[in-house]
């Protein structure tokens, strides 16, 4: 929903918080506990003036330090598993079975996506199944709070600072709002796009819509070098596009394997 034309309580609160900032602050200081988060928000908002709107910065000032996000960020142990272990833990066989059924029941949608982007159903269904169980589990963490927490956190501050600026732009566009909820790292929708990916590869509309999410995912893969008709297993041309989706090697190989089984390869 657009936030222009009227004043919400969270905007008024944000303006009040911003008013406490006197003069231009030095670079916002990252931290590894919640103690400095409120001061960091004020410093960041002062730095961001002119790059982000007053309304989006007010939304930022309404965020809270997300302990759920930090816990998830520190606990990604499954990426250290072998491929077989990872497939078992993430329910690979069930994703293949459900993916084959979804491929048939959504045949027209997948045909139109493949015609437009050159991406077959298998990898898209593998991503959809792996990310959210085909939309069943999309997360319940406040998105702006998650991204702001990771921008403040020292571990990957630069990466998530870019994501935060993207999120503030999406607030202005009405794509995100202060109540948007998703996964612990700020991903939203059926295939879990981070804010910057929404800006760069989103094809329009909410990613809580299945067609929008799958079209956007295919657009992401095409933008990362996907070539129609080429293979997507490790060592084949399109595997590099899958690598662009997630940095974890075991995750990349799982997507390729699940996708091939869905596509009947």
UniProtKB/TrEMBL annotation:
GO MF term set: peptidoglycan lytic transglycosylase activity
Describe the location of the Transglycosylase SLT domain by residue ranges.
37-232
- Cite the InterPro entries for this sequence: Lysozyme-like_dom_sf (IPR023346), MltB-like (IPR043426), SLT_2 (IPR031304)
Signal sequence coordinates: 1-27
Keywords in alphabetical order, please. Answer: Signal
| GO terms under biological process | peptidoglycan catabolic process
Q: Which Pfam families match?
A: SLT_2 (PF13406)
For this protein, the record's PANTHER family field holds: LYTIC MUREIN TRANSGLYCOSYLASE (PTHR30163:SF8), MEMBRANE-BOUND LYTIC MUREIN TRANSGLYCOSYLASE B (PTHR30163)
Q: What is this protein called?
A: Murein transglycosylase
Q: What is the lineage of its organism?
A: Bacteria, Pseudomonadati, Pseudomonadota, Alphaproteobacteria, Hyphomicrobiales
């Amino acid at each position: 929903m657009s936030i222009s034309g009227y004043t919400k309580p969270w905007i008024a609160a944000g303006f009040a918080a911003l008013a406490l900032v006197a003069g231009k602050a030095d670079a916002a200081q990252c931290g590894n506990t919640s103690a400095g988060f409120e001061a960091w928000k004020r410093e960041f908002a002062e730095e961001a003036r002119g790059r982000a709107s007053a309304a989006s910065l007010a939304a930022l000032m309404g965020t809270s330090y997300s302990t759920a996000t930090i816990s998830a960020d520190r606990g990604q142990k499954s990426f250290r598993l072998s491929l077989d272990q990872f497939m078992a833990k993430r329910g690979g066989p069930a994703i293949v079975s459900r993916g084959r059924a979804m491929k048939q029941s959504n045949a027209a949608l997948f045909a139109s996506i493949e015609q437009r982007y050159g991406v077959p159903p298998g990898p898209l269904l593998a991503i959809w199944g792996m990310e959210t169980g085909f939309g069943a589990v999309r997360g319940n963490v406040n998105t702006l709070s998650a991204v702001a927490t990771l921008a403040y956190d020292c571990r990957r501050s630069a990466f998530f600072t870019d994501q935060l600026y993207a999120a503030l732009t999406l607030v202005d566009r009405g794509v995100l709002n202060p109540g948007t909820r998703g996964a612990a790292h700020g991903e939203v929708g059926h295939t879990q796009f981070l804010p910057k990916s929404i800006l760069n590869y989103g094809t329009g509309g909410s990613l809580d819509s299945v067609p929008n999410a799958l079209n956007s995912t295919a657009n992401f893969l095409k933008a990362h070098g996907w070539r129609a008709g080429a293979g997507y297993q490790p060592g084949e041309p399109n595997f590099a596009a899958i690598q662009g989706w997630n940095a974890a090697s075991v995750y990349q190989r799982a997507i390729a394997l699940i996708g091939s089984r869905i596509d009947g390869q």
